[in-house]
Design brief:
Shape: elongated
CATH topology of the largest domain: Chitinase A, domain 3
Number of helices: 14
Strand order of the largest sheet: 20-21-24-25-26-27-28-34
CATH class of the largest domain: Alpha Beta
Largest sheet: 8 strands, parallel, barrel
Oligomer: single chain
Length: 570
């Protein structure tokens, strides 16, 4: 017996210790963690002066600022997330917002704003304030022109922006509990939830739900602590934005540019039109004379416009869209002219005055070689010109290069597609006078790429495809490349004089020919003719665009107008 008792006691102790250990492990596994999360870390706040931002139901990696009592967002964040139409006119020290009918201006550092429609107002805080490398914009001011609501919360400092209002699921907390960073009893506590508190259910899982609280915490709570979710219809704010309207012609645009280098150039209209189908009612319907040129950095323009020209064109059934460019005067300084409100206005007022004087139907903008640093100035000019054109019932069309990513994205074709009536893609100069290699002026791949990329940004019914009426004849010798641009008839004559046999090239969808001369010079030509033009328009039509525009009147072959008319009709 004396030997049995110690053994028995040992066994009992082992069982007790083991049971306690297992019980402790079970308790640890299923007990609720009391660890509390660092809410500053949760909101990504690393500086006490920072204000975290939530957009709808997502924490985002930007910061707001509370300055002298006002809540601000950086202009770049406003542009990227909420409304891309605010414009910092650095030369004037102003923040500009342009609606379809008015230009609203606020001076940086001031509380007041004024509009070209005669209205004005003020807010409790400075509307815009300079930052280190950006502009701070008052959130209350952003909401004046943006479908946006917002709330501010303290400890920690944070705002929740809302620009999307889908219907949502709402549940009630049925018992005091905790909101946790993740779903699980071991996750840290974000904050306590009280019985009766309502939360928005973002996602419901088997045992936990992701929810958002009224004070903009997003975390997880056990389903057993929530009532069954109820579907709630969102209360959407009243629409504050003025809708853009556009002029859309009830026919396919068949347009040609007419190069006019002086008043005398207007006299070429009648003889050049005589070889077209203008007046037939089925072909050419729009002509764009190169009448207006920026001539300095102060917004002054030269003009070759005459009412007689417009009357002659109208008699042929043609609308006249006067072209304004920035490259036909050696003293033109578009960067300076577009950078200030006063000089933009001078250009626009002059164009409107000229248009009224001669009876124009539209304005065609052909500003080229705009640097990316002036991109925002340029698109603001288009917005402001759009206001004037709408008021005067003028068609506004804008010429663009084929989209090439960062090289010309600053022309902002998407915004053009909103504020202008037509966006024209100049589908030529794929290989140009300074090209390092010989090639097509407008291969089918180049043309289609331009249209495809554009209709991804602009409604196709606003897109016009530009086509060339010229060909480049190339010469390559000893590694040196040069070329001459020839009209369609002259290019065909050049080929025939040299006895070159043309063959259709499937890659470019053009007739190609070449000749090696006795001195070793390689001559090459990718011909623009009725066949290549027909193919281009056929591809364009596949994208449902609004029509074509050709450069330039007088360089076409006699058969080209019937080709274009048939291609557009089909």
């Amino acid at each position: 017996m004396k030997k049995i008792i110690p053994v028995f006691i040992a066994v009992v102790l082992i069982l007790l210790i083991g049971g306690f250990y297992m019980g402790q492990r079970t308790l640890d596994r299923y007990s609720y963690s009391r660890e509390r999360a660092d809410v500053n870390e949760y909101f990504g706040i690393t500086d006490p002066d920072e204000t975290a931002v939530l957009l709808n139901d997502e924490r985002i990696d930007i910061k707001a600022a509370v300055l002298d009592g006002g809540c601000y967002l950086s202009l770049s964040d406003v542009d990227a997330l909420l409304n891309g139409r605010f414009y910092h006119c650095k030369a004037d020290g102003t923040l500009v917002y342009t609606t379809p009918s008015a230009i609203i201006t606020a001076t940086v550092g001031e509380k007041t704003w004024s509009s070209t429609d005669g209205s004005n107002g003020s807010l409790d805080y400075a509307i815009a304030r300079p930052g280190d490398d950006d502009l701070w914009v008052l959130v209350d001011y952003v909401t004046m022109y943006t479908a946006l609501t917002w709330e501010y919360f303290e400890d920690p400092s944070r705002i929740r922006l809302v620009n999307d209002w889908p219907d949502f699921d709402q549940a009630t907390v049925t018992k005091d509990t905790e909101l946790r960073v993740l779903g699980g009893v071991k996750s840290a506590i974000l904050r306590d939830l009280e019985k009766g508190e309502r939360v928005t259910v973002l996602e419901q899982m088997e045992n936990w739900s992701e929810v958002r609280t009224a004070d903009a915490y997003i975390g997880y709570v056990e389903n057993k602590r929530l009532s069954d979710p109820i579907r709630v219809e969102a209360l959407k704010p009243q629409n504050k934005t003025e809708e853009y309207t556009s002029i859309h012609k009830p026919y396919m645009i068949d347009m040609v540019w007419h190069f006019v280098a002086g008043k005398a150039g207007n006299d070429t209209l009648q003889p050049l039109l005589s070889s077209t189908d203008a007046g037939s009612g089925q072909g050419l319907n729009t002509i764009a004379p190169t009448w207006f040129a920026l001539c300095d950095g102060e917004g002054n323009i030269t003009s070759f416009a005459t009412s007689e020209y417009v009357q002659q064109a109208h008699a042929k059934g043609l609308e006249v869209w006067g072209v304004v460019d920035n490259f036909n005067n050696p003293d033109a300084d578009a960067e300076s002219a577009l950078a200030r409100a006063s000089t933009r206005k001078r250009i626009i007022d002059s164009l409107m005055s000229e248009a009224a004087a001669v009876g124009l139907d539209g304005i065609n903008v052909d500003f080229e070689l705009i640097p990316s640093s002036s991109g925002e100035d340029y698109i603001e000019f288009i917005r402001e010109l759009g206001i004037a054109c709408r008021k005067n019932s003028l068609v506004l069309s804008v010429d663009n290069y084929v989209p090439m990513g960062n090289l010309n994205d600053h022309y902002d074709r998407a915004e053009q597609g909103v504020v202008a009536d037509y966006v024209i893609i100049m589908g030529y100069d794929e290989h140009y006078a300074g090209s390092s290699e010989a090639g097509s002026v407008a291969s089918i791949g180049y043309v289609e790429n331009g249209i495809k990329r554009t209709v991804a940004e602009v409604p196709p019914e606003k897109v016009i495809g530009g086509i060339p009426f010229y060909t480049r004849v190339w010469a390559t010798k000893d590694g040196e490349v040069s070329s001459n641009a020839l009209s369609m008839p002259l290019a065909q004559e050049w080929v025939e004089q040299r006895g070159i046999t043309l063959a259709w090239d499937d890659e470019t969808c053009q007739n190609y020919g070449e000749l090696t001369e006795s001195d070793g010079t390689l001559r090459q030509v990718w011909i623009e003719d009725a066949e290549s033009i027909r193919t281009k328009i056929s591809v364009m039509r596949n994208y449902g665009i609004a029509g074509v525009a050709a450069w330039q009147l007088g360089q076409e072959s006699p058969d080209i107008w019937e080709t274009i008319a048939n291609a557009l009709a089909n």
